[in-house]
Each structure stands twice: as structure tokens, then as C-alpha cells.
Amino acid sequence: MYKLLAMDIDDTLLNKKRELTDRTKDAIERAKEAGVHITLATGRSFTGAKRVSDALSLKGPMINYGGAVITDIESGKPIFFEEMDSDRIIELLELAREIGIHAHIYRDDTVISEFRNEWVKGYTGILSLPLKVDPDLRYKKWTKIPKVLFMTYPDHADELIPILKKKYEGILKVSGSTAGFIEFNNLGFDKGSALKRIAQDLGIKQSEVVAAGDNTLDAEMIQWAGLGVAVDNAKDSIKELADIVVPSCDDDGMAYLIDNYILPSIK
Description:
- By secondary structure, the protein is an alpha/beta fold.
- The protein has helices at residues 9-13, 22-33, 46-55, 86-99, 118-127, 154-167, 191-202, 219-224, 236-241, 253-266; strands at 4-7, 37-40, 61-64, 69-72, 78-81, 102-107, 110-113, 131-133, 148-151, 172-176, 181-186, 209-213, 227-231, 244-246.
- It has 2 domains: 4-81 and 189-266, HAD superfamily/HAD-like (Rossmann fold), CATH 3.40.50.1000; 86-186, Hypothetical Protein, Haloacid Dehalogenase-like Hydrolase, Chain: A, domain 2, CATH 3.30.1240.10.
- The model has no long low-confidence stretch (mean pLDDT 97).
């Protein structure tokens, strides 16, 4: 019997047009009525994910910043927060500068960027996030920063991720999320560790947890869950980790998952 469903947002719960379909909303509502806890597990900030949470009328915890933060949906306050080391943040910002790609950080769900460029304007515009431009970004000591995000073209990100994973092996978690995004989190603080914490707090067994995603930022929670799920549009490496592969995000994969695996386990 499955009691907890954790879903990545972008390219998993939402389709490629960033839409939440009626079919998926209906399936989630039926899962909630059956007593299933629904958790969003995203690289987004709480502010960036709140529109989706509100559309589903969710309560309880939400996993943000790739697992560095767990937020209480009703209060909007962090239940858990893992901050990155300031020197490591500066190192990453300098690295992005050296290789000529955009990087930014987050403080209290505000995006902080050294420049106001097309990358950060598009990002904050889509997610309706506040933006602060700080020309001294690389020269300050930063606290309460949950992650660093690099942004570049999708093919370039695919080339860089294995290089950066090797560079920071045993030091940082380096992941892909949305196409062109490279995410940096503290090692050991990922969607899997956050999902484990939530399940324990809810008194739910590992075998009763389902986790679904599409990219390497989702790897740990897919591996940890009793049922690890990849959507058909997922990276091949994620499909290999998953127990099952469901239809793509454009074909309402989460609705299929709920109707064919989660609800039948309850009946």
C-alpha cells in the first residue's frame, strides 16, 4: 500500500508547456481523498513552486532547492535548511565567470545575480521570483544560501555536468534538472535525504513511498523510494535507476502512475 507520493515538478508533474493538466489534477485529488500524502520535490524555491502547490491545494511539507530545504506549505517557513559554505559559493561563482556562463544564488527565495542578463530575467520572469542585482556578488561572504545554479544551453550543460561531477566528486552534489540547468548542493542533502526525513516524520515506511522524476536531481529519491518512477521523457540514466517507467509528462504520466499503481495498492 502506497501512502506517500513525491513528485518532481518540471518535466514530471507539469508538461513541457509548464501546464498542470485537468487529468493530472483530478488524479491527484482522488489520491488525496484516498489518504495519500502528496509532496512536491523540486529544485525550485518555495516561492517558485507555490503556484503549483496552490493549484493542487496541498498541505504539509514541500522539498525545495533540490533537497537543501523542506518548507511547511501552510506557513511558508522552512522546517529544515542546509546552507552551503560561503567559500564554496564564491568558488562556484568564479568558475561560472571563467567558463562564461550565468550563475546565481538564492537568499530568502530572492534570486541574487551579479548581472541583469537575459538568463536571469527569463528565469525570474517564468517563476515570478524577486531579483536582486549585486555587482559585488563574488566578493561577499554569504550565509543561508541553499544552492548555486548555473544556466547555459542544454547541449553545453550536458557536456559540463560529467566534468563538474568529476571535479566535485566527494565534495558537492552536481545535478541536471531543467534543460540547461546545473545545480550544486551540499553532498548528502538531496531529494532522497529530504524525502526520507518527511516519511519518518509522517510515520510512513520506505516501502510505502513512491517518488517520480526525470533528471539527475531526482536520482536519490527515486533510488530511496519503495517504488522509484521515471517518466518516459526522463534521462536514460534515470530510467535505469527506476523500478518503473510511466508515460511522459506530456502524456499525463503522473495521472497514469496514480491510477495504475498507487490507487490500486489501496483497494
